[in-house]
Design a protein that fits this description.
36% helix; globular; alpha/beta; nine-stranded mixed β-sheet; Spore Coat Polysaccharide Biosynthesis Protein SpsA, Chain A; 8 helices; 9 strands
């Protein structure tokens, strides 16, 4: 059993996959497996994955479903490692000692949250949330429905026996709702020493092609049915403060 399973879901992005995969290969911690779960129509990702001469890297083909989360869940179901990180093809690990540091912290914690560095059209974008805010919200995860202070899924490292799957019926809140379940009642450590780099604004990014208001309302109906009144206030604040402000500024 490897110490880490790094799941990399991808769709038609062999070039971005190379960057993500190389950030794992450069780690000074070598006890890992990478599972590339691919629902592409073309064979470009498959060809690249099969060219890698490393037995720790495996490729699995997923028949494309209705949502990306189905591919994410497919990859998670293949994980054999003690700890798991799900890293999309447009993300990468920043430092070569990332896994070494995370492995140490996982001895006393069920979930370790790394920091995120966002690249928007090649330039670093300053985050509005502070480490103190991130730590507070991770201890009160229902607040994530108001503001996602974590970032991408690659920021979460968790024990395999704590794994939960994504709700494939959600779109806008698919990662936040997963964070909520993954963090609630867990021993969580925010660890800004480790960072994940996430590329935003590239063509093909799912969030670039969504009708935000439409998918928000769909997700809101699903979430209110599941959680009743537990997260209703956070959703109301998000709708009226976050989405309302973006709509007035013409950003959605």
């Amino acid at each position: 059993m490897p110490k880490f399973s790094i799941i990399i879901p991808t769709y038609e992005h062999a070039e971005l996959l190379k960057r993500a995969l190389q950030s794992v290969i450069m780690q000074d911690f070598e006890d890992w497996e990478v599972i590339i779960c691919d629902d592409s129509k073309s064979d470009s990702v498959k060809a690249y994955a099969e060219s890698m001469q490393d037995t720790r890297i495996s490729y699995v083909k997923h028949d494309k479903g209705e949502t990306a989360a189905e591919n994410w869940n497919f990859g998670l179901s293949k994980a054999q490692g003690e700890h798991i990180i799900l890293m999309h093809h447009d993300e990468a690990i920043v430092s070569p000692n990332h896994l070494s540091l995370i492995a140490q912290k996982m001895k006393e914690n069920e979930v370790v949250i790394s920091d995120v560095e966002v690249l928007y059209h090649g330039k670093k974008r300053h985050r509005l949330t502070t480490h103190l805010t991130q730590r507070f919200v991770s201890q009160h995860p229902k607040l994530l429905f108001f503001q996602n202070t974590i970032g991408p899924t690659a920021c979460l490292a968790f024990r395999r026996n704590q794994m939960q799957l994504f709700n494939p019926h959600l779109t806008w809140f698919v990662d936040v709702e997963w964070y909520y379940r993954m963090l609630k009642g867990k021993q969580v450590l925010n660890y800004p020493t480790c960072r994940i780099q996430s590329i935003h604004g590239q063509e093909g990014q799912i969030s670039q092609h969504l009708d935000v208001i439409k998918v928000f309302r769909k997700d809101k109906a699903i979430l209110c049915k599941i959680y009743s009144g537990k997260i209703r206030l956070a959703l109301w604040l998000y709708e009226h403060l976050i989405l309302g402000t973006k709509k007035r500024l013409g950003k959605i």
